[in-house]
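Entry 14. Ran structure prediction on the chain below.
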Amino acid sequence: MGERRAFAVLFLALTCVGLGQAILFAILPPAAREIGLSPFQVSLIFVISATIWMFMSPYWGRRSDVIGRRPVILVGLLGYATSMLLLGGAIQAGLQSTLPVWIVYLMMIASRCVFAVFGSGAPPASQAYVADRTSIEDRTRGVSMLNAAFGLGQTLGPAVGAVFAGIGVVAPLYVSVLLALVSAASIWMFLVEDGPPVAHAEQRERSIRFNDVRVWPFFLLAACLQAVRATTTITLAFFLQDALELDAKAAVQAAGVGFVALAVAGVFTQLVVVQKLRPSSRVMLRGGLGIALVGFVTFVASAAMPGYLVGLALIGAGFGMVRPGAASGASVSVSADEQGEVAGMTSSVGVVGNIVGPIIGSLLYELTPIAPYLLNAVVMAAALGFASFNQAIRRVRG
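Output, structure tokens:
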């Protein structure tokens, strides 16, 4: 019962984080345009924070081996809440023109840096907590549940945003802060942990390198997936606004529907398909990449909202398989005392995509709005070919 309750509060915590991120991606692009920021400037906010996350996530993963998973998860949730509070204040100041645009922009960057430094602790520590308590056969299901929690938050985010946006544009961000604090309190009270999971971890030398033959293929696929995902989420609101000729308010609504299609498909895949069929990491990687490829081809070939939604749903279903497939594949490929480290590194290399994707995507978007999605299709096709023939992926145990 205690472990089931612990998994439940973890699910709640990551749902809240996903909810806040969905609200942010729906609100920030149109709000930034109102403030006077370009798509490239918006993408640069995420690039800077992603760069910091890339270095901090492995640190927090290793740190969770030393001090335990629960303290690191708490640091992550409180850092996330603080960053959203600061970002809401920055956006509000920009919309009300109470501060110069350049100061507002620096405040936005600073708020996301807080998220990167401290919020980067929650995902790897959560994954390592699940890995500590699941067998190799159940690892993929456990990791999928964590990803489903984040996806569920992304599904609920636009609805929560729409409900509270009537109070003010940034009100949904403040709601996400409150939910994060509630989640942190639940983790403090109910997450069961007897102590540091790895004996003498403080003195243990780092045992995993990014070129480790056991895990680098999974790291590569995680980076590719996140680059494609980041490009999609950063440009989607802009794309729908321009392609469908929408005003800012309608663009927020259309982007919200699009993000829901992405998230619902991912959640369904992780909560229903994975839990029922129990596919291996190898099957999840190959199947997910193939489905995402079909989704991007459908999106590019469309010219109206229904077609875009079908494409986004397929993309979401594919992402819902690839992300946990890469994470669980890396997890089952290393030993029990390397779980925090590999979880942090998987999160870190995934964030490399958050650096590369927005830069390339926003620059391509300036050439033609459909260009980022054409590139995404090419990346998914190449990744599918790699996953089909790489020996480490073919030999993965779970």
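The domain at 2-193+211-394 is CATH 1.20.1250.20 (Growth Hormone; Chain: A;). Will compare against last week's run tomorrow.
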